[in-house]
Amino acid sequence: MQTTSEIVYIERGLLHSTLGLVVQPHHDIQDTVELVELQVGSSASHKSIHAWKSHIRGTIITEIEGYAIRSRDDIIAAIINANHNRKRNVKIICASHKGFAMSGQGVPTLQTDQLNVIAHHIHTMTTQQDLWEDKTDWPVQLDSQESIDLQMKISKLTCCCLQGTDEREQFHKSEWKQLNRCDKVEMFGTPIRYQEGMIALPWVWTYIFKENGLTDDAEANSCGTCNGGLRCGEVVTLAETYTSCVEQPIHRLTWTLSAALNLTVRGYDVGNVFAEAPAPEKPLCTMMDDQFNEWWTEHLRCDPVPF
Fold first, then answer.
1. How far is residue 34 from each of residues 24, 71, 94, 252, 278, measured CA to CA in Å?
2. What does the pLDDT look like over 162-183, one tens digit per residue?
3. pTM
4. b/e per residue, 220-256, with b = 16+ CB within 10 A?
5. Dihedral, CA of residue 63, residue 68, residue 73 and residue 76, to nearest 10
6. Do residues 25 and 33 touch, judged by C-beta distance below 8 A?
7. Is 143 in contact with 188 (CB distance < 8 Å)?
């Protein structure tokens, strides 16, 4: 259990039997109460306990001013005793479990130590080296914090950085690959001349070496997007492009069965979500940059755009 404390001042004119603490019996642990809400206008209001929803909502109230709390009546008795002793405030101790297999809404959860166990299993399968010798104890952290921070940093490159390097040709092919996909779903129209009041957004290209899920090789990946910043014109809003996903219980079951059967799970990007989304209300135009012009003339064999 990990605990936190809050100080609630007793206002005589706003004296409430529980100081505004709205509780209910905990659904998993007997003889405990769970904090559900703070009554507006009471001593323990939203003003006296800042960010209470993220800090103490859903926690277990264990004691008030040294009195053990097992029910709502215990809270009332503790408040009456504090008021009788002319105390100006009371100290409330709240507790929560460090790790729960299920959340308060019944959603399965995975804790950090469990993920570390999964990481050890994956390391053993890929390297045939078992670093977890004593299975009766929790394994040590597989990676140091420094290596984790290094892995989390994704080094993105720019076109200027790649000029004159051997990797430029790899990213060049990746640029054409993305533009070909956009052209295949008819995202590009016939080039037109810029007109007054037209919204024309510039391209922004980023480059990164991304691991291939099938071969585990680092492949050059180019990503071209439109710069929708305020300096580039009126904001253009596209529809949501989120795809459907399985619910968490099914997701947890999938990982459990995969681990039990020693299977390999691979993830893939959904490349057609923008094609399935409805078009924006206003036409979206983009400026033809060097990457686009090169693809337009050298790959599609179209005449150069004269404007």
1. 5, 9, 9, 27, 45
2. 877 878 888 888 899 889 988 8
3. 0.43
4. bbbebebebeeebbeebeeeeeeeeeeeeeeebeeee
5. -50
6. yes
7. no
Q: For 209-242, what is each residue's pLDDT tens digit? A: 877 766 767 788 888 888 776 666 655 555 455 5
Count H helices and E strands in the chain, helices first: 9, 10
* Alpha helices by DSSP H, 102-247: 112-127, 145-152, 159-162, 168-184
Neighbour count for residue 178 (Cβ, 10 Å): 18
The Cα 67–Cα 62 span in angstroms is 8
Q: Residue 99: helix, strand or coil by DSSP?
A: coil
Contact by Cβ (8 Å): 254, 242: no
CATH number, domain 2-96? 2.30.42.10
Domain boundaries, the chain: 2-96, 154-237+280-299
Within 10 A of 189 (CB to CB), how many other CB atoms are there?
8
